Amino acid sequence: MALTTQKELDLRQIHDTEFPLPDEIQGTLAVTSLSRIYNWSRRSSMWPLLFGLACCAIEMIGMASSRFDFSRFGMEVMRASPRQSDLIIVSGTVTKKMVVPIVRIYNQMPEPKYILAMGACASGGGPFKEGYNVVSGIDKYLPVDVYVPGCPPTPQSLLYGLIALQKKIDGQSIANADDVPWYGAGPSEPTPIPILGPDIIDPRQMDIIRRQAEYAAQGKPYGVRELPPPMEIKKKVSAKAAALAAATVAAAPEPLDENRLKRRMEALERRRAFATKNPEV
Ligand code: SF4
């Protein structure tokens, strides 16, 4: 794919092939793949949800302010509506009361959406782990993409986590239906919303809870810890996407012959020489 563009956009960021370009057009022309363009645009315009839970949220606010400034990554547009957000930064202690709206908010976000667990509390309960009112990690309920350790993590480490998320997006391929399940047929399955009663109940564990209650009613030993079944991630993949993925596999390139390999090595050598000559690029 070739694009010409305005002066301020440096297309060297998305140039992604072994074909070298003459020096004089490198800032204005890029030869790249559709996946690279797709990932680059998504990861450079990530809009986080304007949402904080506890002390970690103060560090998140610090990261958004001028000293650390996450607008450098295209993320400054924090949205107050889940319908306009791509990313939820779970910044703080997740109480049993609060996990219910968090899951509801997550379900209201459009795909593709990502979750970053910020700090010890969001990642595993932190200093309050096993407390009567605290959930031992948001990943018990939602699929976390990046964990940022610390109590609290510094703004720098949160920025590092966001960069890790960008790298994760960079590694996805539009040709792989598993990487882009949101292009499947129909709406994606909502995550079951936990039920707040005397304790928090995950509807996915209802069978275990019911069984334990029956044991208790029959006077059998109960309360024996059972592990819930592994989380099943349902991905609806359209027939078209599956056919595209199959065709991509079928059309996998032949192993490189010697001439092709030689040309590729020469191209890499030229790129290396260019990089040595222009270390600031
Ligand atoms: S990880 Fe530490 S700083 Fe963050 S919310 Fe928990 S107690 Fe507060």
Describe the structure.
The chain has 281 residues and is mainly alpha-helical. The protein is 35% helix and 7% strand. The chain is built from eight helices and seven strands. The strands form three sheets. A three-stranded parallel β-sheet has the order 3-4-5. Strands 1-2 form a two-stranded antiparallel ribbon. A hairpin with a 3-residue loop joins strand 6 and strand 7 (200-201). Helix 1 packs antiparallel against helix 5 (155-170) and helix 2 (55-64) packs across helix 5. It starts with a strand and ends with a helix. Mean pLDDT is 82; it is low at 1-7. Residues 54-56, 92-93, 119-121, 126-127, 151-152 line the site of iron/sulfur cluster.
Summarize the structure.
This protein is mostly helical.
Keywords:
mainly alpha, three-stranded parallel β-sheet, 8 helices, 35% helix, disordered N terminus, binds iron/sulfur cluster
Task: Kindly report the average pLDDT value.
Answer: 82
**Strand-pairing-aware structural class:** mainly alpha
Question: What overall form do the CA principal axes indicate?
Answer: globular
The percent range for helix content is: 25-40%
**Helical segment count:** 8
- SSE run: EEHHEHEHEHEEHHH
Beta-strand percentage range? 5-15%
Low-confidence stretches: 1-7
Taking the sheet with the most strands, its summary is: 3 strands, parallel
Oligomer: single chain
Strand order of the largest sheet: 3-4-5
